[in-house]
Amino acid sequence: MHNGRMRYHDLVLEPARRGDAPVLAAMSRDLIEAGLGWEYREDRLARLIASADHVAIVARERRGVAGFAVMQFGDEHAHLVLLAVQPDRQRQGIAVRLAGWLLQSALVAGSASIHVELREANVAARALYERLGFAETMRLDGYYRGRETAVRMIRVLRPPGATPPAWIPPPRSDARH
């Protein structure tokens, strides 16, 4: 820490582990689902962590999980299911790093787009996604338990149906030279 701010080298992005499920569930309950009921409980997060169709990552620091994100991958589209950062770690670039890692994963996977829904009143999340290149596609009245409107946003990575660029391995570095 420096002046109460976290330094990037104190933070590691890595795949979530089964043992992270209780913390991720509590963060979802308190930071994402507050006031709506609690759907992403420990057992559900454990299934998402283990799922071959999902990627769950955490931003880990010495004292624990500072943030996390879960994204589902389909044939053409990816869906950012959850993203949260601990309140005392917000506005320090952690959400941008988590989302950036998943965006790169979607590009490598050949996804055409990434979709996300957020509460209409969540101005900070909307600003984050707009900075990341997402654009609003629609509003869904009553999306959250019939009580709150959702804003659906999309980040287009390539035209749907277009063949993703071929993966080219990085040049080999031969230490024998």
List its traits.
177 residues, alpha+beta, Aminopeptidase, seven-stranded mixed sheet, 4 helices, 26% helix, disordered N terminus
Structural commentary:
The protein has about 180 residues and is α+β, with helices and mostly antiparallel strands. The protein has one domain (about 10-155): Gcn5-related N-acetyltransferase (GNAT) (Aminopeptidase). The protein is about 25% helix and about 30% strand. It is built from four helices and seven strands; from the N terminus they run βααβββαβαββ. Strands 1-2-3-4-5-7-6 form a seven-stranded mixed β-sheet, with helices on both faces. A hairpin with a 3-residue loop joins strand 3 and strand 4 (about 75-85). Helix 1 (about 20-30) packs across helix 2. Residues about 1-5 have low confidence and may be disordered.
Structural class: alpha+beta
**Largest pleated sheet:** 7 strands, mixed
Report the mean per-residue pLDDT as an integer: 86
Number of domains: 1
The strand count comes to: 7
Head-to-tail CA distance between termini: 41 Å
Q: Roughly what fraction of the amino acids lie in strands?
A: 25-35%
Helix-strand topology string: EHHEEEHEHEE
Q: CATH H-level name... which superfamily?
A: Gcn5-related N-acetyltransferase (GNAT)
Stretches where pLDDT is under 50 for at least 5 consecutive residues are 1-7
Shape: globular
Number of helices: 4
CATH architecture: 3-Layer(aba) Sandwich
Report the CATH C-level class: Alpha Beta
CA-atom Rg in angstroms? 17 Å
Helical proportion? 25-40%
